[in-house]
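Re: beginner question about structure tokens

> Can someone show what the tokenized structure looks like for a real chain? I only ever see the sequence side.

Sure, here's an example I had lying around. Input first:
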Amino acid sequence: MLVPFEAVSRDSRILLSALGALAIGILPATAQEGAGSFVEEFDRLDAKRWYISDGWANGEHQNCVWSKGMVSISDGVLKLGIAKQQAKDREYVCGEIQTHKKFGHGTYEARIKAAAGSGLNTGFFTYIGPTHKQPHDEIDFEILGKDPSKVQLNQYVNGKGGNEKLVPVPGGADADFNDYAFVWEKDRIRWFINGELVHTADDPARLPSHAAKIYFSLWGSDNLKSWLGSFAELSEPKTAEVDRIAFTALGDECQFPESVACSLD
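And the corresponding structure tokens:
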């Protein structure tokens, strides 16, 4: 299924990993070539920075169609929804945004309140892949709505994952806003929750090396039951909220007092 150039999400990996061979022979954009630091407070949705996914689904695993109507800003908070509404061949619509630019080594931070519900996935991640004429590299925070007391961490290198780790979120990821951050360096990735280090990956063979786009999404699935749980039909919309997103390139000064980048070694 063809999708717009900007329209590739991490959810596409099930379909796109098999296409990784297309990237062979293409000169990739390395992590060091990424865009510069920024802080997004979501006073508005800056169309120069963000692209809203709209009008397609990322494969049979996704039971909703991306819709601009499921993306909104209210009181400085980005809201991504999923709701029962017929769209093409799906019974639900859902929300995703992605950056136009690609970003490299640095500190990625977001303040998120996730959606609860079996079969749902609230995601904050970086992704690049064959549709961008690049290898599939990815770094994830994924909150599985079946158990929002935890968040799943993961990373992909040239389409190969298998690095999943579940870590607790104090008080629950759906009960209030929590701060999620990962620091991506050449020789390691460190994940943080509310400023506390929760996981480190430092195997050179398992570290992404290509600049990637930043994504936020809320979506559901009827058939990924072993991972997301059985989808619970929605009688009313569900919403994930994002209060702030920041990227601080390695070597740049930290941009706000609570930033993990302020206390890195």
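Each token stands for a local structural state, so reading them left to right follows the chain. The longest helix spans residues 13-16.
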